[in-house]
Write a structure and sequence with these properties.
- With about 350 residues, the protein is mainly β.
- It has two domains: about 130 residues, Ribonuclease Inhibitor (Leucine-rich repeat, LRR (right-handed beta-alpha superhelix)); about 140 residues, Leucine-rich repeat, LRR (right-handed beta-alpha superhelix), CATH 3.80.10.
- Helices cover about 5% and strands about 15% of the residues.
- It is built from three helices and 18 strands.
- A twelve-stranded parallel sheet has the order 2-4-5-7-9-10-11-12-13-14-15-17, with no helix packed on it. A two-stranded parallel sheet has the order 1-3.
- The longest helix is centred in the N-terminal third of the chain and has 8 residues.
- It is elongated and about 80 Å long.
- The chain starts with a strand and ends in a 28-residue tail after the last strand.
C-alpha cells in the first residue's frame, strides 16, 4: 500500500524546502501505484498548485474536502484509478478548476451535488466508468462546460433536462452506453454544440425533433446502433453539418432528400447497413465530396473507395406527406485526412 503524503511528495520532488514546495504549481504523480491519499496532504502549503495529475494509480477513495485548500487548481487528473464514489464534497473548494478527468475508474455512485463547487469547469471526463444513471440537475452548476464525456458507461436513459444548463457545451460524448431512446427535448438548449457522439448504443429510431435546435452541429456520430429508419426531416435544420456517420446500422433504404438542406456537408459514411443496391438515389449538396454506402472488408477501404459515382439524382423534388415515413472524413482525395 502506497499513501500519498507529505513525506512521499518531498521524496519524489527531492526537496525538504517548504518554500520550494509552497511555490510548486504542478504535481505529476503518475504510475506510482498510489492506493490512498492522506486526508491532510493538500493543506495550505500547496495552495499555489495549478495542476495535479494522479492518473494511472490504484486510488480507491477520495476523502470529502480533500482538495478544498487548492483554490488555484485548474487541472485535476484522477483517471485510470479504482474510484467508486463521488460525494457531495469530493471537489469542494475547487472554484477555479477548469479540467477534471475521472474517466476509467469504477464509479457507480455520484452524489447529485458532486459538481456543485466546480462552477468554472470547462472539461469533464467521466468516460468508461460504471454509471447506470445520472440525477436530474447534476450538471446544473456547470454553465461554462464545453466538453462532457460520458461514453463507455452503462446509461440506459437520460432525463430530458439533464443538459439544460450546459449552454456553452461544444462536445458531448455518449457513445458506448445502453441507450435506446432520447427525449426530443434533450439537446434543445445546446445551441453551441458542434460534435455529438451517439454511436454504439441501441437506438432503433429518433424523433424528428431530436436534432432540431442543435443547428451549429458540425459532426454527428450515429454509427453502430440498430437504426431501421430515419425520418426524412431528421437532419433538415443541420445546415452547418460537415460529417455524418451512419455505418453499421439496419437501414434498408434512405429518403432521397434527407441530406438536401445540408449545404456544408462533405462526408457521409453509411456502409454496413442493409442497403443492397449498387446505385442509390440521393439529392446531395454540391459540398459533398465523399460518400460510402457499399460494404467492404478491405481494411484500406476509405483510402480507395468513394461511391459518389453510384448516386442517382432524383428526377423531381418530392417528399413523403408524412414526417413519420417508415420505409424503412473523408473527401474524394485520399490525401485529405478524415478525423474519427
Amino acid at each position: 500500500m502506497t499513501e500519498l503524503n507529505i513525506e512521499f511528495i518531498k521524496n519524489k520532488l527531492n526537496t525538504t524546502n517548504e518554500d520550494e514546495l509552497k511555490n510548486s504549481t504542478d504535481f505529476q504523480f503518475v504510475l506510482l501505484n498510489i492506493t490512498a491519499i492522506n486526508p491532510s496532504v493538500f493543506g495550505d502549503l500547496f495552495s499555489n498548485l495549478k495542476r495535479v495529475n494522479l492518473n494511472s494509480n490504484a486510488i480507491v477513495t477520495i476523502e470529502p474536502k480533500l482538495f478544498s485548500k487548492l483554490v488555484n487548481l485548474e487541472e485535476l487528473g484522477l483517471g485510470f484509478n479504482k474510484i467508486e464514489t463521488l460525494s457531495a464534497d469530493t471537489f469542494n473548494g475547487l472554484v477555479n478548476l477548469k479540467s477534471l478527468d475521472i474517466g476509467n475508474n469504477q464509479i457507480n455512485t455520484i452524489d447529485p451535488k458532486a459538481f456543485e463547487h466546480v462552477v468554472n469547469l470547462e472539461i469533464l471526463r467521466l468516460s468508461y466508468n460504471k454509471i447506470t444513471s445520472l440525477s436530474e440537475g447534476i450538471f446544473d452548476s456547470l454553465s461554462k462546460l464545453e466538453s462532457l464525456s460520458l461514453d463507455g458507461n452503462q446509461l440506459t436513459t437520460l432525463s430530458s433536462n439533464l443538459f439544460e444548463k450546459l449552454i456553452n457545451l461544444k462536445g458531448l460524448f455518449l457513445s458506448s452506453n445502453h441507450l435506446t431512446s432520447i427525449d426530443p427535448k434533450t439537446f434543445n438548449t445546446l445551441t453551441k454544440l458542434d460534435t455529438l457522439f451517439l454511436g454504439s448504443n441501441n437506438f432503433t429510431s429518433f424523433d424528428v425533433d431530436t436534432f432540431k435546435l442543435v443547428t451549429n452541429l458540425n459532426k454527428l456520430y450515429l454509427e453502430k446502433n440498430q437504426l431501421e429508419t430515419l425520418d426524412p426531416q431528421i437532419f433538415s435544420t443541420l445546415t452547418n453539418l460537415v460529417e455524418i456517420y451512419l455505418f453499421d446500422n439496419k437501414l434498408k433504404t434512405i429518403d432521397p432528400y434527407i441530406f438536401k438542406n445540408l449545404k456544408c456537408l462533405r462526408n457521409i459514411l453509411m456502409e454496413h447497413n442493409e442497403i443492397k443496391q449498387d446505385k442509390i438515389e440521393l439529392y446531395l449538396p454540391e459540398s459533398v465530396t465523399f460518400l460510402i454506402f457499399k460494404d467492404s472488408n478491405n481494411p484500406f477501404y476509405y483510402e480507395q473507395e468513394n461511391h459518389l459515382d453510384s448516386v442517382i439524382r432524383p428526377s423531381s423534388i418530392s417528399r413523403p406527406t408524412s414526417s413519420k415515413w417508415t420505409s424503412t472524413t473523408r473527401p474524394a482525395s485520399a490525401n485529405v485526412q478524415l478525423n474519427f
